[in-house]
Amino acid sequence: MENIDIEGTPKTPTIKFSPEDGKLTIQGRSIPENSIEFYKPLVDALEAYAGSPKSATDVDIILEYFNTSSSKCILDVFKKLEKINADSSGVTINWHYEEDDEDMLEAGEDYQAIINIPFKMIEIEE
């Protein structure tokens, strides 16, 4: 299984996924023109990873902003992780948000309410 290493742009986040280490990071802004197409390689990789996940999978979400279509794709990513978590691997999602960004904190809490995976809310000091 290959690593995913997508460099971020002003409209798309940096995505780094290392199946060998069980580490996934999504960082930056997520307002791609076609969210489904942008996130598809990651969703496909997580589907493959679900076949033989590491005993622990760490996910860091460090987004400044994401649009509505990205939020659906992020939920799809979380659903794949939820399946991995239910099957065998201990998945932890670290949701990073800036200390005065209540919208991002609420978004993390909304996902936390929907997805059955342990979430850690991590405040970033500016």
Q: Please bin the fraction of helical residues.
A: 25-40%
Q: What is the CATH topology classification name? A: Transcription Regulator spoIIAA
Strand order of the largest sheet: 1-2-3-4-5-6
In whole angstroms, how far apart are the ends?
A: 37 Å
Q: What structural class should be given to the helix and strand makeup?
A: alpha/beta
Count of distinct structural domains? 1
Tell me the major beta sheet.
Answer: 6 strands, mixed
Strand content range: 25-35%
Shape: globular
Total strand segments:
6
Q: Kindly state the mean pLDDT as a whole number?
A: 95
- Name of the CATH first level: Alpha Beta
How much is the radius of gyration in Å?
14 Å
The SSE string, one letter per element, is EEEHEHEHE
Task: Describe the overall structure.
The N and C termini lie far apart (37 Å). This protein has helices at residues 35-49, 68-87, 102-114; strands spanning 4-6, 14-18, 23-30, 56-66, 90-98, 119-124. It is an alpha/beta fold. The chain is globular and about 40 Å long. A six-stranded mixed beta sheet has the order 1-2-3-4-5-6, covered by helices on one side. The mean pLDDT is 95. The chain has one domain (4-124): STAS domain (Transcription Regulator spoIIAA). Helix content is 38%, strand content 33%.
